[in-house]
Design goal:
This protein is mostly helical and about 450 residues long. It has a single domain, classed as MFS general substrate transporter like domains (Growth Hormone, Chain: A, Up-down Bundle). It has 16 helices and no strands. It has helices at about 55-85, 90-120, 125-150, 155-180, 190-215, 220-240, 255-265, 270-285, 290-300, 305-330, 335-355, 360-385, 395-405, 405-420, 425-445, 445-450. α8 runs antiparallel to α15. The radius of gyration is 21 Å and the shape is globular.
């Protein structure tokens, strides 16, 4: 996935400082990003699929679709598998165990991502992707083997999930940093949108296919399919013609100074901190993904097949919206305002999902949340890439991963603990309300985001 959408599902704000969003005192950095020619009313986009004209991007885009499909099959299967393994110990234990899945996914990312960003800016990015994809393939294969052998305990699932997440911490910065070399600058915003569309289509296909395979053949078959899916990315990278290394004079060294340089760039760029912070807070409190097995089995009573459709509903809304955004390009007059409105819609849809007892209304609200999240994600990702120099993209992405992926995964832990104490519907509703409160705070304080225009990089 090209824009860190891993996986992504979607404060308690009272009593907690909304610190990093209020970075009004930081000066603008001296770094300048690359020159981009963006679509405007006078310079319209070249079509919804312009980036696919470029061979290397097309290879990675296709390979990632198959890989993400397998990964999303595994994501929903792990949640269901953990739920089944822990349900004999009681509903509260099962809910807490689902929350821990988020924890074991996010801790390796937080620990490894900063180093992963430095490595991605210092080594051949294509070779790094090959290594990380191989590690994730082996983790999925191991899950398939131990599950088919009759797994009775949950800790091996946690351990292999953590190892795979550590590989993601190196894989995502490498792919993010490689992407601008696969398409010309004019088609870069379109490539971001198409990467998101590919990811979201996989999020539709993956959970539904995962639910079918899970119901018919069990979790081991899903894990085996995911292991094979990583070969698509391996093949795509091997066939690419683009160089995996940046310019020799711009390559970073794997050192503490390189890490400090990346952190300094992010921290000294107010709009960067504001977009990352808003993303973290919104997804931390409004993520209902980990609790979907409870909603499917106990609240809506729709079983495995219904669970797969619920897990895909958000992505379905995201796909439709992503296709519209791919054609629109970067023609947003006030992108900052669009981000805030879309996050507010995301939070409101989460509240309504938590209140719903109708399967069809629940599907509609999940689809709406996916559509709103698409608008926010594509705009934020485009802004961050446009203002970041190529030599710092890996490190910027690694910092962003802590926010982007840490929010949903820690949110799953928070949602699971609240659900264990007060029930899954209450947990989801409370999270959506806090997401709306965070948007209100951001609207008052994130001034650089509200003032930003894409024309600044035209």
């Amino acid at each position: 996935m090209f824009t860190n959408f891993d996986e992504k599902g979607p404060s308690r704000v009272a009593g907690r400082p909304f610190l990093v969003l209020y970075c009004r005192t930081h000066s603008q950095p001296s770094f300048r990003g690359p020159s981009f020619t963006l679509s405007t009313p006078d310079n319209p986009p070249r079509g919804a699929f312009a980036a696919l004209r470029h061979r290397d991007f097309r290879l990675l885009w296709t390979g990632q679709f198959f890989s993400i499909t397998g990964s999303q099959m595994q994501v929903v299967t792990i949640n269901w598998h953990v739920y089944l393994l822990m349900r004999p110990y009681g509903e509260k234990a099962a809910a807490a165990a689902l929350g821990l899945v988020g924890l074991v996914r996010v801790v390796p990312i937080v620990v490894c991502s900063l180093v992963g960003g430095v490595v991605a800016d210092a080594v051949d990015r294509k070779r790094l992707i090959l290594v990380t994809q191989t590690v994730m393939l082996l983790c999925a294969a191991a899950l398939a083997l131990i599950t088919s052998a009759g797994l009775k305990h949950v800790w091996p699932v946690y351990a292999l999930t953590a190892l795979s997440s550590a590989a993601i911490a190196f894989d995502n910065p490498a792919r993010q940093a490689l992407l601008p070399s696969l398409v010309p600058a004019r088609d870069f915003p379109n490539a971001v949108s198409l990467g998101f569309v590919s990811f979201q289509i996989a999020l539709v296909v993956g959970p539904v296919l995962g639910g079918v395979v899970l119901a018919q053949f069990g979790p081991a078959a899903v894990y085996a399919f995911n292991a094979l899916s990583f070969l698509a990315v391996v093949a795509a990278v091997l066939l690419m013609r683009a160089a995996g290394k940046g310019k020799a004079e711009e390559l970073a060294r794997v050192s503490l100074e390189s890490l400090k340089e990346g952190l300094s760039f992010v921290w000294r760029t107010p709009i960067m901190v504001q977009t990352m912070s808003l993303d973290f807070v919104a997804t931390f409190f409004a993520s209902a993904t980990a609790l979907l097995p409870i909603f499917a089995r106990d609240v809506l009573d729709v079983g495995e097949h219904g669970y797969g459709v619920l897990a895909a509903a958000s992505a379905f809304g995201a796909v439709l919206t992503g296709l519209l955004l791919a054609r629109r390009g970067s023609g947003w007059r006030r992108p900052g305002l669009a981000v805030l409105v879309s996050v507010a819609v995301y939070g409101a849809a989460t509240v309504l999902f938590g209140l719903s007892r109708s399967y069809w209304l629940s599907l509609a609200m999940l689809a709406l949340s996916g559509a709103a999240d698409t608008v926010s994600t594509v705009i934020r990702q485009t802004i961050r890439q446009l203002i970041t120099p190529d030599r710092l993209r890996g490190r910027m992405t690694s910092v962003n991963m802590i926010f982007f992926m840490g929010g949903p995964q820690l949110g799953e832990l928070e949602a699971g603990l609240v659900a264990a104490a007060a029930g899954a519907p209450f947990s989801v509703v409370l999270g959506g309300v806090c997401c709306l409160a965070a948007v209100g705070a951001a609207a008052l304080r994130a001034r650089e985001l509200m003032r930003y225009r894409f024309a600044e990089h035209g």
